[in-house]
Amino acid sequence: MWQQMHADLKANDTELLSIAVDLQGPDKARPYHEAAVAEFTTIVDEDNALARVFGYNAIPNGVFIDEDGILRFQYYGGFNVKNDEMAELVTAFAESGNVSNDGRDADAPVSDHFERGLSLFRSGDVDGASQIWREGIVLDPLNWNMRKQLWAIENPDKFYSSDVDYGWQKEQVEAGR
After folding, report:
1. Residue 48 and residue 20: Cα distance in Å, rounded?
2. pTM score, two decimals?
3. What pLDDT, on the 0 to 100 scale, is given for residue 100?
């Protein structure tokens, strides 16, 4: 779906940039980009830097920036071009540069637990990172970036062995994990 959106956008001289959030780096995200035969660029934010800048705590997000670098639209957590309304927003922006910004609140507080856990993870203290992220999830239960990174290091088979197991993730949420 994203590849088709990219092709449609190119016709209007509009670029699509995909940003994956994965603290384990680009090698974990690359297979998904390649499997999609994606012609658009994907970068990996392994430091969660964009979440701090834009104030989001879940992906996917839609952020529209015009040719002058002005932020014109932002929708955080759950932006999906399979949703007709969201696909229409993308098309409208590509065709006219105009779109109403009725997206999610960009001023939501961002916990520092992700960064603290990331520091521990990178130093080799996976257990310490897991503990910090669990504490962070209690304080910020809607922080899906932190939750999914925790799940990915504890259950890599649910994320990296083939397709991401969204059914398993749903079960985790329902179980309060």
Report:
1. 10
2. 0.56
3. 60
